[in-house]
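ESCALATION

Customer reports they have been waiting on this structure for their group meeting. Please prioritize. Original submission:
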Amino acid sequence: KRQIKRTVTQQLNSYEIANAKQLAHLLTEGGLHDSFESQISLLQTPQAQQIVQVGYDIARLHANSHNINNAVERASKIVFALKSYARYDDSGEKQSAQVTDGMETVLQLYHNYLKKGVNLIRNYQPVPEISCYPDELVQVWTNLIHNAIQAMDGKGNLEIGIYQHEQHIIVEVQDSGCGIPPEIQDKIFQPFFTTKSAGEGSGLGLDIVKKIIDKHQGEISFTSTPGNTTFTVKLPVRW
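Update from on-call: job pushed to the front of the queue and completed.
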């Protein structure tokens, strides 16, 4: 594996990609080193570190996939996730989209992992399409689901609610995990803040999640006690 990392580092350096050594480590440990050259354009973006970290996090969640079919499925889902994260910028066009569809895309991404220890409960009500940046909202749902799974250590109840209240769509992501300690609850939306250990990764980061929701003129809030943490996102139907 050391030789693979050295080779990947050299290849990244040849493309003049910043942080080549660290990226090579994540690509190799995440099992992404065989296909990264097809995604060089992603690795040359300013968000490269976040993109690869997200891919690494997802790969770790799916680390128990050993057979070829699962490996192929895993790789395709990771590439999809990387491309979704790479699209986070201010240049996209607003369009009408169904929030439920975006959430289901993310749940499919985590399907193999969810079925092994997480009891998934969907509480969906019929809701209208909203004006939004769909790819950015996919990033929000990915982060909230990822954090919930980690908080439960891969086992517990994950409940997702989607419903309409007046001129807003409400999305609730509730988990039965360890909860957020009271002493840090006022910090979790701060830039670069994470409760995770070094090398574990921080996903997209709740600070960027909040920026995406703010961009949609929405609101994000949470309540948390041991065994019950709920993140609530409120999005206007039109803005």
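Sent to customer with the following note: The chain has two domains: 2-86, 95-236.
Escalation resolved.
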